[in-house]
Amino acid sequence: MKLLEQAQGGQGLSQLAGQFGLDESKAQELTQMLAPAIGQAAKKRAEEGQLDTVLGAMKGEDKAAFFDDAAAAAAPEAQAEGQNFLETLLGDSAATEGLAATLAEKVGLDQDTVKQFMPSVAAMAQGGLQKQMPDEQIDGMMAAAQPQQSGGGLMGMIGGLLGGNKGGDAEGQSNTLGMLNQMLDADGDGNAMNDVLGKFMR
After folding, report:
1. What is the C-alpha to C-alpha distance for residues 129 and 134, in angstroms, rounded to an integer?
2. Radius of gyration in angstroms for the set of CA atoms belonging to the chain, rounded to a whole number
3. Tell me: the pLDDT tens digits for 170-182?
4. How far apart are the first and last CA of the chain?
5. What's the maximum distance between 2 C-alpha atoms anywhere in the chain?
6. Angle at which helices 24-47 and 12-19 pack, to 10 degrees?
7. What predicted TM-score, i.e. pTM, was given to this entire model?
8. CB atoms within 10 A of CB 94
């Protein structure tokens, strides 16, 4: 959410709302639920051993434009990219539709509007992530994630960067995954969108 709030000098979400004729407060409310949902879905995939899937979904340096331009994020190409991103994290199109229906009900918007807005928000998030972590860096992380020795790979690397256990035992890797989970649980409550996502993730 903090990343999205930085888009286009802090005006990205309001400008994106304008692209869909959405009230800015409704768009903000919707994004405040969708952003942690994306984070929680990524966390669940990582816990399931699909870190390469999460990292691969962030690739594509052309996506950086979606963060810098609300019109670009609302364009059909960006919506397709954002929809693919959501389906990758959630599992399939049925899961994204279920999430859209739930968010629409919670925010008080029609489902079709939410289904259009969601992938554009996801595309803008992809663009922001790409600007922070270009393809070259992602490729390096994906290579590091390949198990080369006990305690190696992405989990060990993140543990080292964050000052965690650098050893090769299971406890050390568990601690590292816990640190990654903490990074993705931005609101700190440990349960952001878990109940909602549990109904839809494949």
Report:
1. 8
2. 17
3. 444 444 445 445 5
4. 24
5. 53
6. 110
7. 0.71
8. 12
